[in-house]
Amino acid sequence: MKHAAWLLSPGAALALALVPVSVSGQASTSARDEVVWHWFADCAGGDSLVLDVTLDGKPIYSSAFPICRLHRGAIKPEPQQRLLQLRFNGVPRRFGARHPSTDTVSIQGNIWEAGGERHAILLGVSFATEDKVLLNTVHLAQANAASRSERVRGLVITTRPVRRGDGMPRNKGVKTPENP
Fold first, then answer.
1. Cα-Cα end-to-end distance for the chain
2. pTM of the entire predicted model
3. Could you say which of 45, 134, 138, 161 has the lowest number of CB atoms within 10 Å?
4. What is the largest CA-CA distance in the chain?
5. Domain ranges of the chain
6. What is the SS3 assignment for the chain?
């Protein structure tokens, strides 16, 4: 019996990873009542998370975004997945990718909310060149403590909570429907 091999282009794979999934019809009543952390949506004026991305100790992206606690069942799917986007120049082989070139190329990063937990927000993180997905992973952003991820040596993602009145920095590079 022959088996068909299915391959997705990097763009299709990234698009598939970013499609919001609604599990509200499958979740039990107790799961829908669970209070979890969520970003943006109805969270304006509340607490925030600051997200920083550094490469070899140099800042390449910084953003702050509102967070709040909501019942899982109250979180409505957005018409378009909210993305934080960044771009930097790097060598794809740094990501462990078998890439034919050792040249520096433009690498795009995308960060999105992949899920909410009782004490944290799960952020999906991907990095890709024009033709290849280099990394697709998650960062657990603790709501009450600093968090750090380093999936690729020298590429560090950190998040830290900022409470109301703590002097939250302005968003840099955030793409939202209100701020295209």
1. 50
2. 0.73
3. 45
4. 65
5. 24-74+82-175
6. CCCCCCCCCHHHHHHHHHCCCCCCCCCCHHHHHCEEEEECCCCCCCEEEEEEEEECCEEEEEEEEEEEEEEHHHCCCCCCCCEEEEEEEECHHHHCCCCCCCCCEEEEEEEEEEEECCCEEEEEEEEECCCCEEEEEEEEEECCCCEEEEEECCEEEEEEEECCCCCCCCCCCEECCCCC
